[in-house]
Amino acid sequence: MRRRTLPPAAGDLPESDCKSGQSEHAPTIQPNVGQDSSPTSEGSEAVSVIEPTAGGGGGQPVPGVKQTMVLDTASDVAWVQCAPCPMPQCHPQTDTIYDPSQSSTYAPFACGSPVCRQLGPYGNGCAAGSRQCQYRVLYPDGRSTMGTYISDVLRLNPTSVIGGFQFGCSHAVQGHFPNDTAGIMALGRGAQSLASQTRLTYGGVFSYCLPRTASYSGFFVLGVPRVAAARYALTPMFAIPQAPMLYLVRLRAIVVAGQVLAVPPAVFAPGSVVDSRSVITRLPPTAYAALRAAFRARMGMYRAAPPKQQLDTCYDLSGVRRVTLPTITLVFDHSAAVELDPSGILYNDCLAFAPGTDDRAWGVIGNVQLQTYEVLYNVAGGAMGFRRAAC
């Protein structure tokens, strides 16, 4: 029997994450471009910098306003909170709030402009009196943001500057957003995302790696990595008309301690969304039941504990010096095998998987399962890659 070990209770995350299925802890990823990587800490968030120039000072540059943003591969519209942004319509944030009135490069889009029309379902009419294009994004968990759709200069690192970057200038949010972030950096398939806006420069390719704990470093990269393609487990990536912003792959099998689970192939047919913001992986109920049974059978030496939110296979590991876990491998199309790091198996001392609502619905591959892997999105090439032990 193949097993892995890890210390107990490693990498516990806030209970609110478990409720919402979204990562809301505060560590940051430093974005980089052009095949370079830079240090990060645990989490699924990126630091980007909106770089305004003096508004009325002859266009002379002024220091940029650093904005800590959540990386989100399942949405299209990037946004940051903008002044004026009174409470409680806005949430508190650690970074200095972006004030477009201080930037000579800021430009709102007019209602009826091609960019405004391109917002499609994210459009929210016109601002009264100003004829400025408005946007609104409603997330699946009920949270939302609304404000003015604008452009300004985005600096990703000291040498990479994106002029005319389009994003939402948020003046109101609903629901809980983490106080240590200023907004969301969308990386979905839509025309408004960072990946799409930089496609001509970086070829529709980006990747990231989320470390297992804050003591390790990870990265976010725009552009083709320098790592040889042979080091990635590659699988086809596809889209669906019901949710065109999403990136899906097809799970073919789950292997526990070297044994392939007996799951009918049709169960995996709808595909699985790879979502940088979702914490926990959700499997079709039939697949989850098989995984849970196999995992419990190999964890019988540990005391069971009550469920925690949607996680129903939990253990009392108090006093246990080291926990021995069965290996879990996710096998995707083209035999792309991803053996999970031990930190991707247990979450808050529970099996880090949950059942979806229906075998006919697509699943979700969460960021906990992909910790330590570089996840490569080759949007132009229609492929996703996984490189183990990358951070």
Automatic annotation (TrEMBL):
SUPFAM superfamilies: Acid proteases. InterPro entries: Aspartic_peptidase_A1, PEPTIDASE_A1, Peptidase_aspartic_dom_sf, TAXi_C, TAXi_N. GO terms for biological process: proteolysis. Residues 48-387 form the Peptidase A1 domain. Residues 1-64 are annotated as: Disordered. This is Peptidase A1 domain-containing protein. It comes from the Eukaryota. GO terms for molecular function: aspartic-type endopeptidase activity. Residues 19-43 have a biased composition (Polar residues). Pfam families: TAXi_C (PF14541), TAXi_N (PF14543). Belongs to the peptidase A1 family. The active site is at D72, D275.
